[in-house]
Structure formats: C-alpha cells, structure tokens
Amino acid sequence: MAYENYSQVSWTDGSPLTGERLQQMSTNIQQVKEATDDSPQGLKKIKSSPSSIGDISLTGTTAEIIALKDETGTGGIDNRVTIGPSRYCRITLNFTGFKVNAKGAEDAKYVLELRSGLHGSANTLLYKAEFTPPIFALINVTGANAATISNIALRSDSFKSHFGAGTYQFVENSGAGFNNKSYFAAVTRESGSNMTNAPTYTVPNTYLQLYVEDIGGTA
C-alpha cells in the first residue's frame, strides 16, 4: 500500500545524522516512487475517423471498422500498444452506431465487438454488445391520417435506421506486460428467421474513435 512505511524526518540545527534517519529518508523516497509508478500513465495510442467504411452486406462474418495496429506498410503509423507489467489497461471505442440502409431482416441481430490481436488472424474477444434494429416503419399521419396502428406504413429507404451509438469500454490486466499489441473493433450481423433481401448497412466513420489508456497499477 502506498506510503504505509512513510514517516516524516524532522531536522533542526544540530540534528544527528544517524543511520536510522538516513534509512527512513531512503524508505520515504521509495514510497514516493512506488506511489508515483502506480499512478495512471494516460493515453497510449489513439485512432480517429478512419478511412471511409463502405456498405457492409456480410451476415455471420465480421468486418473491421477501426484498429490500433502497425500500418506503416500502407503509409500509416504504428499504433500498436506497449504496457508495462501489473497495469490496468482500458480500451475505449466511441462508436457512431449502425446505419441500416433499407427495410428487411429486422429480426437479425447486429453485433459490436472489441478484440485484441489482428482481424483475420489470431485474436481474442474482449467485449461484445448486441442490438436488435427497429422495424422499418412509421405511423403515417400524412394528409391528416390518424395516429393509429391502422396507419402504419413502411418508411422510404432514404430514411435510414440508426441505432447503437455510444461509448464502449473494456479494462484488462496487463499481467507480465506486453509489447506491440494490436486492438480492433468489428461488427457483424447474425441471421434472423428470414434474411432474404437483407439490406446493406454501414458504420459512419466521422467521430469513430478507438484508444487505449494506462489507468494505473494493480497494486
């Protein structure tokens, strides 16, 4: 526990320079070091607003939407994360939500995942959130129609469904520490009872953000 062996050493003119006093000063310095080392170290890596995410038609297969990884081979930067031993590491996704482009497959399930590793390679699921989309309909009060169940109508495809936006986080223990670890967020759609003519969907890339922080020691 931080500062459990800390004790103020008082000095006045003529105070003896004893081994006991010097040892307590050394102990105090060590206690301050341990407390400082245990403090959060803050932001490690961040990625914001990745390249445009095109329409996704996949069902049952994930699509990466943003990642912290080594992109130096494609003109980007190395966003892999290094964390020391016995630290808490927080992975945060500011998710802009799903945008479904048309009617259909409303009983499907849309899934958001945070994973460590590389998409399409060895990776580990850290966090998973599941969403059921709203039906592609509205109460049609055009022309003074009554706002009743009998006046439900399908929406035009120009009015997309939007849902699921928010901030999603996962905290992991770094254990013995790690070097150059990658993280990514992915989405998928899991089948409902009828996926015939299932619409495409996307994740708006503006304001989409993934970052990793060191939030303190585990002691």
Compose a concise summary of this entry.
The protein has 219 residues and is mainly β.
The sequence of SSEs as H and E is HEEEEEEEEEEEEEEE
Strand order of the largest sheet: 1-15-4-11
CATH topology of the largest domain: Jelly Rolls
The 3D shape can be described as: elongated
Mean pLDDT: 93
Task: Report on this structure.
- The chain has 219 residues and is mainly β.
- The model has no long low-confidence stretch (mean pLDDT 93).
- The protein has a four-stranded antiparallel β-sheet with strand order 1-15-4-11, with no helix packed on it.
- It is 9% helix and 39% strand.
- It is elongated, with a radius of gyration of 26 Å.
- It contains one helix and 15 strands, in the order αβββββββββββββββ.
- The protein folds into two domains: 1-37, no CATH class; 41-217, Jelly Rolls (Sandwich), CATH 2.60.120.
Give me some keywords for this one:
219 residues; mainly beta; Jelly Rolls; 4-stranded antiparallel sheet; 39% strand; elongated
List the helices and strands and how they pair.
Elements lengths: L18 H19 L4 E7 L14 E6 L12 E3 L3 E9 L2 E3 L8 E9 L5 E9 L5 E3 L12 E3 L6 E3 L2 E8 L4 E4 L1 E8 L10 E2 L6 E9 L2
Antiparallel strand pairs: 1-15, 2-13, 3-12, 4-11, 4-15, 5-10, 5-14, 6-7, 6-13, 8-9
